[in-house]
Amino acid sequence: MFLAGATRIARRALLLAAGALAVLSSSAQARTPIQVQPGHGGPHTTFAISFRAPIDTTIDPYNESYGIDVKGPSRSACAEDLEIYTSSGRGLRKGQLLRVHARSPYRHARWCRGVYSGTVHEISVNPSSTCELEPPPPGCAEVSTLVGVYRFRVT
Is the pTM of this model over 0.85? Predict the structure, then answer.
């Protein structure tokens, strides 16, 4: 009799754990779609990166913003990470379309050949005046949340 009760409890625990795992894995994959037009281009192409804002940043646009980064192909002069856009100071409403035109950010004014990968992050900064102290207290760190990823190819 004791074994049947223990089995029933173990089965319930297993079902709860499986359900929790399903929720966690689906939320980890839930990202905002990022589109790049065109998907591939030449060394002088201007790429349009667009997405719909998942959160509202109009309340405090200096402390809630979006940042777009791009990383060039490895083993090239363009291999570094670069920030190509920030919405700091510009409030965006939830669901608003943000479209950024990305021209080559490199000194030689052309994209290197290869695959570029990029990220869009939502950046939150604690606006408390205590965060201006040096060194800042532990709760004052800038928090960066991944919104989505994108790729494009230069041929």
Answer: no
- Chain segment 88-139, per-residue pLDDT in tens: 888 899 999 999 999 887 777 789 999 999 999 999 887 776 777 777 777 7
Coarse DSSP helix, strand, coil percentages of the chain, rounded to the nearest 5 percent: 25, 35, 45
Backbone angles phi, psi at 41, to 5 degrees: -160, -170
Rounded to an integer, what distance in angstroms lies between the CA atom of residue 7 and that of residue 32?
41
| Bridge partners, residue 99, by sequence | 50
Cα-based distances in Å from 25 to 16, 33, 92, 121: 14, 17, 28, 20
144 phi and psi, to 5 degrees? Answer: -115, 125
